[in-house]
Hints:
The chain is of the alpha/beta class.
Amino acid sequence: MSLITGKCWVASGYVMAYDIIVQQVWAWAIDPEENSKWVMAGVDEAFNAENAFKDQGYTFIVAAHNFAGGGKSIEHVIAGLMGAGIKAVFADSFARLQFRNAINYGLPFVTCKDIAKGFTTDDELAYDPTSGKIENLTQGTTFQSPPAAPFVAEIEQAGGLMNFVRQKIAAGEPIN
């Protein structure tokens, strides 16, 4: 897995799944392009317009505890984040169901203690999934997260669980 760079958006507080993808979008098909149009509309009024979050060009989200918790385990959340250009989310902790959805879709949800204290919205970051190193290039600080587990890294590299399974089947390899 290679180095990922880009700018971050920092959540100012607890971010619920219900707010990442607002309820009127839940009935839509799971489609990253469509689901991304209203990402974070319930979190910040500034994003309550079509493509308002996506148009900011964020690559990362930095949050505190239980990111994407307190709600349904709808996959629209992960599809929408990916459609909006998010390549990784860093937080102290994540909601279990959305954490698993993120793995299934190949979106790194990375736990790192006190990560939200070290970033400001629009800071430039560099993330190395292999080592777990997260650098704030704007502020010159570094955080260390656990590296991605090998199985999770394989799923991410394949572009999600379904692609991973398809590739294994096509290659005649066992799925461990």
